[in-house]
Design goal:
By secondary structure, the chain is an alpha/beta fold. It folds into three domains: about 5-100 and about 200-260, Adenylosuccinate Synthetase, subunit A, domain 1 (Adenylosuccinate Synthetase, Chain A, domain 1), CATH 3.40.440.10; about 105-195, Orthogonal Bundle (Adenylosuccinate Synthetase, subunit A, domain 2), CATH 1.10.300; about 265-420, Adenylosuccinate Synthetase, subunit A, domain 3 (Adenylosuccinate Synthetase, Chain A, domain 3), CATH 3.90.170. It has 13 helices and 20 strands. The chain has helices at about 15-25, 75-90, 105-120, 130-140, 155-175, 180-190, 195, 205-210, 245-250, 285-295, 310-320, 360-365, 390-405; strands at about 5-10, 30, 40-45, 50, 65-70, 75, 95-100, 105, 200, 215-220, 260-265, 270, 305, 310, 325-330, 340-350, 350-355, 365-375, 410, 420. It is globular. It starts with a strand and ends in a 5-residue tail after the last strand.
């Protein structure tokens, strides 16, 4: 059986949690391979809603082993709080495993994230202030703290001291904050060691052995393609690799074991934080999309910027990730619109571009070229097959599929597990 990659095709918040949950009962492992608690996945099961931040969505599927991979940065306080909250609601987290090579978010990284963002003023990136970026920076600067370091106090103390040599200079002399002591950081991190130890594994070995046995592994991405540090709308991006390529580096599974790349895409577009957004609606239509779609961040509660479907971005995501299947979500939110615009190209300085502009400047100045599709008024939330949809909704979906560069395999018509129309099997 294969490894499957599931990623976001826009700027995040596409409904990856629901898509992962849909597959969770059919796979053996669900692996979070990038990011940290700066993004959330929402899963609705009956009348219950679950907001997940660090935990893979597979945690809600009995019999599935959830894995936090080496590409993730882990805030241990958040992790254990999330575990406690889920167990209080009747879900066991005893199958959860964590890579020994995942990096730890230390308290000083949270502090630096917040003060640096304030220091940037109008040039801010729009981070969540949870220490994600500074922790990835430490990883690349080779001064990071990994999960395995908590089990060797001498190494942990040396690494914390090395990291604080520079960081305290920044905190005190640049940001006018108090210095952080090595002892305080070490004491906090060691307080988690005993509870953490039974969960820690060589995750790359575990996952490759599972594939050797014929088991199925689902690699679940956080954030999305346009937030990828290499292929996103840099510098307004996350600090990790959120594309299909990142799934391999963030899990230790080689590319030749990946069988499918599933990209989740919303029937319109949203974005959180700063940065260009060609189809953004700064009017009553944008407010209506936000209200009807409940477009507020799972982790931060921030209102999301809303706009129409952008097929240029969809084609870009299909190309960068090698998408084999799109999962279209939130089609029901568009019910009631008389006419629905879809961005089919951009105009930049009087020139039409059918693909993503090469430069940040061009993308910043891109003006969407729209085609318009007839809307529908019928309630589609009870639809269970594609033929149950009104003709205009069917036409809209088929038009998006033709414009987006890969086939649509399922359609979401509501947040619940059962509100998914399967056009072709993902497994």
């Amino acid at each position: 059986m294969p490894a499957l990659v599931l990623i976001g095709a826009q700027w995040g918040d596409e409904g990856k949690g629901k898509a992962t949950d849909q597959l969770g009962g059919s796979v053996d492992y669900v692996v979070k391979f990038n990011g940290g608690n700066n993004a959330g996945h929402t899963v609705v099961i009956g009348d219950e809603t679950y907001a997940l931040h660090l935990l893979p969505s597979g945690i809600l599927s009995p019999g599935c082993t959830p894995v936090i991979g080496n590409g993730v940065v882990v805030d241990l306080a958040v992790l254990f709080q999330e575990i406690d909250d889920l167990e209080a609601r009747g879900f066991s987290c005893e199958r959860l495993v964590i890579s020994a090579d995942a990096h730890i978010i230390a308290s000083y990284n949270r502090t630096l994230d917040r003060v640096a963002e304030r220091f940037l003023g109008n040039r801010k990136i729009g981070t969540t202030g949870r220490g994600i970026g500074p922790t990835y920076a430490d990883k690349m600067n080779r001064i990071g703290i990994r999960v395995q370091d908590l089990f060797d106090e001498n190494i942990l103390r040396q690494k914390v001291a090395g990291a604080l040599d520079l960081k305290n200079q920044l905190l005190v002399k640049v940001y006018n904050r108090k210095a952080v002591t090595v002892e305080a950081v070490v004491e906090e991190l060691l307080s988690y060691a005993d509870r953490l130890r039974p969960m820690v594994v060589d995750s790359a070995l575990l996952l490759n052995q599972a594939l050797d046995r014929g088991e199925t592994v689902l690699l679940e991405g956080g954030q999305a393609t346009l937030l990828d540090v290499d292929h996103g709308t840099y510098p307004f991006v996350t600090s990790s690799s959120a594309t299909a390529g990142g799934a391999c580096t963030g899990s230790g599974i080689p590319p030749n074991r990946v069988d499918k790349v599933i990209a989740v895409i919303k029937a319109y577009t949203t974005r959180v934080g700063e940065g260009p957004f060609p189809t953004e609606l700064l009017d009553a239509d944008g407010e209506k999309l936000r209200a009807d779609g409940g477009e507020y961040g799972t982790t931060t509660g921030r209102p999301r910027r809303c706009g129409w479907y952008d097929s240029v971005i969809a084609r870009y995501a299909a190309r960068i990730n090698g998408v084999t299947d799109f999962v279209l979500t939130k089609l029901d939110v568009l019910t009631g619109w008389e006419s629905i615009p879809v961005c089919v190209a951009y105009e930049v300085d009087g020139k039409r571009l059918d693909e993503m502009p090469m430069t940040q400047t061009e993308f910043h100045h891109a003006v969407p070229v729209y085609e318009f599709f007839d809307g529908w008024t019928e309630d589609i939330s009870q639809a269970r097959t594609f033929s149950d949809l009104p003709k205009n909704a069917q036409d809209y979906v088929r038009a998006l599929e033709q414009l987006s560069g890969a086939p649509f395999s399922s359609i979401g018509v509501g947040p619940d597990r059962v509100q998914t129309l399967e056009l072709r099997p993902l497994l």
